[in-house]
Write a structure and sequence with these properties.
Helix 2 packs across helix 7. The protein is mainly α.
Length: 179
C-alpha cells in the first residue's frame, strides 16, 4: 500500500470532506499566485513610471531638439501617475493575499476534520461533527462570494499541482487524475 492509497477516501462523507480539503488547498495556492502576479504588475508600473518621469527631466536639454518626444514622455508619465492608483494593483494584491491566507486556514480545518472522519471520531458524535463541518463550509462560502478576478488557466494549473502533490498522476489525454 502506497502513501497515496492511504489518502484515498472510501466513504461518501470522506470523499466530500477530502474534496473540500483539496479545493481549499487549491484556492490558497491560486489566490497566492494571483497576489504575486498583481504585485508584479504594480512593480513594473512603478518602474516604468520612474523611468519615464526621470528620463523626461534628465533629457530635457537634449529633448529641446525633439519637442514631440519630450511631450510623449511627459504625457505617458502623467497617465501612469494617474492610472496606477485607479487600477488598484496594491489593494488587489492585499485582498488576494488575505484570501490566500484564509483559504489556507480553511484547508487546515478541512484536513483536521477529514482526519477525524477517517479515524471514526466524526461518527461517534455526529451532531457535533456536522456542526463543525457546516462552520467550515460557511467560512468557505464567504470567500467564494468575494468579487475577485479569475484566471482559468492558472486555476487549472493549481488544481493539477495540488492533486499531484497528494500522490495522484495527471493524464493529459483524458485530463483526469490517476493513482
Amino acid at each position: 500500500m502506497t502513501a497515496a492509497d492511504e489518502l484515498i477516501p472510501y466513504t461518501t462523507v470522506e470523499t466530500e470532506v477530502w474534496n473540500s480539503y483539496l479545493n481549499a488547498s487549491c484556492m490558497a495556492l491560486y489566490r497566492g499566485r494571483q497576489a504575486r502576479r498583481y504585485e508584479k504588475f504594480q512593480t513594473l508600473g512603478d518602474i516604468f513610471l520612474g523611468v519615464t518621469a526621470t528620463s523626461t527631466w534628465a533629457t530635457l536639454s537634449f529633448l529641446k531638439q525633439y519637442p514631440e518626444l519630450s511631450s510623449v514622455l511627459a504625457v505617458s508619465s502623467a497617465i501612469l501617475a494617474v492610472g496606477l492608483p485607479i487600477l488598484g494593483f496594491t489593494s488587489m494584491t492585499e485582498k488576494l493575499a488575505a484570501q490566500s491566507l484564509e483559504w489556507s486556514k480553511i484547508g487546515s480545518d478541512y484536513k483536521l476534520f477529514w482526519l477525524k472522519v477517517q479515524q471514526g471520531e466524526a461518527t461517534q458524535d455526529f451532531v457535533q461533527s456536522l456542526a463543525e463541518y457546516s462552520i467550515i463550509m460557511q467560512k468557505e462560502l464567504v470567500l467564494v462570494d468575494a468579487k475577485l478576478p479569475e484566471w482559468k488557466g492558472m486555476l487549472d494549473t493549481c488544481q493539477q499541482e495540488i492533486c499531484m502533490s497528494k500522490g495522484f498522476k495527471y493524464d493529459k489525454k483524458t485530463k483526469e487524475f490517476i493513482l
